[in-house]
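Fold this complex.
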Amino acid sequence: MWDALKCDLCGDCLVKCRYVDYDKDRAASEMKLLMEGKAADILDHCITCNACFQYCPTGADPANLICRMQEKMGSPITVGFKPVINSVVKTFEQGSRDIQVIEGDPDKPALSFDSFTFAQFPAGTLESRMFKGMTVVRGRKYASLVGMAHMGGESLAEKYGRRVIDSLAELGKEIVYMHNEGYILAHIKARELGIEVPYKYLHLFEYLLDYFKENQRDIKKLKKMVAYQPNCAVRWFPEQDIWLNEIFELIGVERVSRTYEGVNALCCGGPALFVNNELSMGIQKNNIRDAMDNHAEAMITICPMCDTVLRDQTAKAGLPQIFITDLCRMALGEVSWPVR
Ligand code: SF4
Ligand code: SF4
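Structure:
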């Protein structure tokens, strides 16, 4: 969450931003305008990749300030996604029947798909032995809301986050978050917003890691080299990489070392599609070329949005794209490695 007291107007955040070309003075003056609640050029160019959260040396969270100001000023991203945001607000104000709950065994945790549809995840995901017997929920009332910041809806987590946490608490179960943003709402945003989270929760990676540790004899090592496409929420919690690397090691997958990795990772290009299609395509092509130049045999995604956005370009380039749960299913022999 933006903390003005931590900002010394050094300008590092916007000097390092890949999507503008500001020198230190320009970057500092842009930040000053935003801090004064005024319009600034960056609001039209920021694709909400969240990278400046990590670029800032003082932890001031400039990405959050920019997203707030995009919402306030009606930036191109905000205008492009207005119908989505209006529909989410309507859900919380007037209710929604877009809810699915599949009851599971009483002693097993619940798997939350946030507001994604099941079809946005690979076919057969719920048939996997990894998730057998779990209660499964999805729908608007379980929406993480954190991702709405990419669409000009930064304020929604504050407005409705407590209701989402309450809806999950009503299940009376431990929650496993399939999507990063759901986990971030419980693990980071709730604390920032003073919302109590009255249940235990796990990130999908934590759950998968525990599963593989307990079922090591069922693993068929994949012996593949892969590139990894993090989603923007990883910036808030880069430590999740440790869990992912342990999963990769257990299932015999090597993560290639490449240019667009860690702090230098590229956004999938999704939000940019609404403000600058050419820019978005350029981001995707660079990302895929970098993966292939470094001998990746597949691109691993962890977010249904990144997965949808990148699919055409990885297919055109001939780079298989695999969602993390499907990669894990491959290591269990439930599905086959894709044929190029
Ligand atoms: S969120 Fe990304 S695009 Fe926006 S200013 Fe920060 S680094 Fe640049
Ligand atoms: S938000 Fe951080 S990086 Fe940006 S100007 Fe302020 S202190 Fe510097």
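The mean pLDDT is 95.
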